[in-house]
Design a protein that fits this description.
This protein has 379 residues and is mainly α. Helix 4 runs antiparallel to helix 5 and helix 12 packs antiparallel against helix 13. The radius of gyration is 27 Å and the shape is globular.
């Protein structure tokens, strides 16, 4: 039929045959494409994205955290309600949940954020550590969470409140760092805003909050970051040469300067903090990463949940063999320890009494290195 039509329009026989073949081929392609489209529509939606064991574990963990939300928005099963709620918010954000999401998880996150932002959670100077008794540890955690949530509030009003709370909280951290201290403690932080000494554990939270705030364009002097990095270097356990560089190829960080007893948790914390501050190729970073490569996380170890969080994020930043080894070890350990209800509970005496909300949040933050959602942990 197409040949006859073509001939009537003045085409030659050869041209008519060619046009007819083109039409037939086009028709066959359309049929094939339509059939494929129908198959795609008929296929189950889940085939578009197959969840792996990490995705499934994260879904269960987030469901557990949401189940622990009180009527006032706090997510808590033990003490320190503002701090634990902040950790839960960070855990949710680390898997891509946002307060504006029209989902049960997004709504729970919005309510949790509203709880942290309540006036009775912070004093008039901007200090979060007094209301729930978490002191500077809690203040650093909460401030870091707020800096990471800037621009992600459920409404413009909530965004503005996050910004206002952030700046005052950052000012508390900056003024605390300026307290008069012995030389080896300078640049760091400890339990209270007016503490005259410092430790690496408290320091890392404040430092990450400052760095996150600076990334957001908030007012954080570069000197504050530099002074904190110098404090971290004094907590490194390898002797330093005349140029201030470590003499040993591999070394760890200790809880306080000059203690010379590196631990898994403090070395992991120092590793992440140094890299967050841009010290990716520092010999302190290289040495800490190599030290950790020989000392994997152990579930019964003191502060394992806390240390594994730093370890997972810090080794990911390092990349290569360090990142791959840490990813495998963290997944193997944590997936085996997750309870049926999606939670984790620490087994070591240092963290066991802190509660499952804490351990679950830290586990999510450790495993969510896969997703890279939180800006502070991106390379």
């Amino acid at each position: 039929m197409w040949i006859l039509i073509c001939e009537r329009r003045g085409y030659s026989l050869l041209s008519s045959v060619f046009v007819s073949l083109c039409v037939i081929i086009h028709f066959c392609c359309v049929v094939a494409v339509n059939a494929h489209a129908q198959d795609a529509i008929a296929a189950p939606a889940e085939t578009a994205f197959q969840k792996d064991e990490i995705d499934i574990a994260m879904d269960k963990a987030i469901a557990y955290l949401v189940s622990k939300q009180r009527d006032d928005g706090a997510i808590i099963d033990k003490g320190h309600d503002t701090t634990m709620t902040a950790l839960s918010i960070m855990a949710m954000a680390s898997v891509g949940i946002q307060p504006a999401d029209p989902t049960p998880e997004g709504q729970a996150m919005s309510r949790a954020l509203a709880f942290v932002l309540r006036e009775d959670r912070v004093d008039d100077k901007g200090y979060f550590g007094r209301a729930d008794g978490s002191r500077m540890y809690g203040h650093g955690i909460i401030t870091l969470m707020l800096t990471e949530m800037l621009g992600m509030g459920a409404s413009p009003e909530q965004d503005q409140l996050i910004h206002d709370r952030c700046q005052k909280a950052i000012d508390v951290i900056l003024s605390s760092q300026k307290e008069r201290k012995p030389t080896h403690y300078r640049g760091g932080w400890r339990y209270e805003p007016h503490s005259k000494d410092s430790d690496l554990s408290a320091t890392v939270w404040q430092l990450m909050a400052l760095r996150s705030a600076r990334n957001d364009g908030m007012q954080v002097p570069a000197s504050a970051i530099a002074d904190a990095v110098e404090y971290l270097k004094r907590s490194y356990t390898s002797p330093l040469d005349r140029n201030g560089l470590p003499e040993k190829k591999a070394g760890g960080f200790s809880y306080e300067p000059h203690q010379n007893n590196p631990t898994f948790t403090m070395t992991a914390a120092g590793l992440l903090a140094m890299q967050v501050c841009g010290e990716y190729d520092s010999p302190f970073v290289i040495g800490a990463a190599d030290w950790l490569l020989e000392r994997p996380p152990k579930w019964e170890e003191r502060f394992c949940s806390y240390g594994t969080y730093y370890y997972a994020q810090g080794m990911y930043q390092r990349g290569g063999e360090h990142a791959e080894t840490a990813r495998r070890l963290v997944q193997e350990m944590l997936l085996a320890k997750q309870a049926e209800d999606g939670s984790w509970t620490a087994h070591n005496g240092s963290e066991k009494g802190v509660g499952a909300v804490y351990a679950t949040s830290m586990a999510v933050l450790s495993l969510s290195v896969k997703y890279h959602y939180l800006p502070i942990y991106q390379k």
